[in-house]
């Protein structure tokens, strides 16, 4: 499962995911920010799960019905925890993400919204 880390995700998460053998790109390395719609479209075109801190992607996916390959939204996690939690979520919820689910993840809760909701 490939991932695209939004620019707002800690850059150290990129190193941790790469070290764990994941195919991941980080928008923070791009020359400019193309905006949320373009980031979501690019993630979808490349069959990547989007990892973000930004709740606007949920609106794009749910309300505006933009296609995607799964979204993980990290809420209230310290920068250092973002990588560890991302790895745990990817491992535990790979089936749901492969089916296009939206996951909202905090330290004490994971909310899964299936692609069919």
Describe what you observe in this structure.
38% of the residues lie in helices and 22% in strands. The chain has helices spanning 11-19, 36-45, 56-62, 79-92, 94-98; strands spanning 2-5, 24-26, 48-52, 71-74, 102-106, 109-113. A 6-stranded mixed sheet has the order 2-1-3-4-5-6, with helices on both faces. The two termini are 22 Å apart.
Q: Could you give a short account of the major beta sheet?
A: 6 strands, mixed
Q: Tally the beta strands.
A: 6
* Model regions low in confidence, pLDDT < 50 over at least 5 residues: none
Radius of gyration, in angstroms, nearest whole number = 13 Å
Gross geometry: globular
Q: What is the residue-mean pLDDT, rounded to a whole number?
A: 92
Distance between the amino and carboxyl termini: 22 Å
Strand content: 15-25%
Please trace the helix and strand order, writing H or E for each element.
Answer: EHEHEHEHHEE
Which strands sit side by side, in order, in the main sheet? 2-1-3-4-5-6
Helical element count? 5
Structural class: alpha/beta
Helix content: 25-40%
């Amino acid at each position: 499962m490939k991932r695209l880390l939004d620019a707002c995700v800690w850059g150290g998460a990129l190193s941790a995911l790469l070290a764990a053998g994941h195919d991941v790109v980080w928008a923070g390395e791009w020359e400019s920010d193309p905006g949320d719609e373009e980031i979501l479209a690019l993630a979808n075109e490349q069959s990547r799960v989007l990892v973000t801190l930004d709740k606007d992607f949920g609106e794009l996916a749910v309300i505006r019905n933009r296609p995607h390959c799964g979204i993980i939204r990290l809420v209230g996690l310290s920068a250092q925890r973002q990588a560890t939690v991302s790895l745990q979520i990817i491992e535990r919820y790979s089936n749901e993400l492969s089916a296009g689910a939206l996951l909202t993840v905090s330290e004490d809760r994971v909310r899964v919204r299936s692609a069919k909701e």
